[in-house]
Amino acid sequence: MCPMIIVNLNIRGMGGSTKARYLRQLIACEGAKFVCIQETKAKELSDAKCYSLWGDNKIGWQHYEGDNGRGSLLSMWSKEAFSYTSHLMGKGYIVVYGCYLKSNLTCAVVNVYANCNLSDKQSLWAELSNIKATSQVMVWSLCGDFNAIRSRSKRKGSTVG
After folding, report:
1. I want to staple 144 with a disulfide (CB 3.0 to 4.6 A). Which of 41, 76, 112, 128 is the partner?
2. What burial class does residue 84 get, using C-beta atoms within 10 Å of its C-beta: 0-12 exposed, 13-18 middle, 19+ buried?
3. What is the pTM of this model?
């Protein structure tokens, strides 16, 4: 089986050309076929902006604007490698369904931005669990910023439970 290369990045705002250049270089160097970006801080995106971020126009994309740009997500994929079927979008996630053409594998790629608030996080995971449980798709890839730490000593700058 030939794996699909997925790049995941919390970009913390896409303003300025430096981040766009870094993302283009990352996609090219890694040979990415799918990209999941969290915290774009963008309320709206255009084809031209997404083409510029990827480096060509042979891509598909979905954008979740979040709450006034907060928690915003962008999923992009190469149309030459991934055949888009459909998507679902909700607070904190984009699920993109399609087929990875190299292996003819139907899959779902989930781009997640989990809020630090525990009840919001629980709602997000309950919703995603329900989506997966009712789906016919067997292969799933979850990417994102889960805002989770393994020990309290690693927590910096947040008092949220």
Report:
1. 112
2. middle
3. 0.91
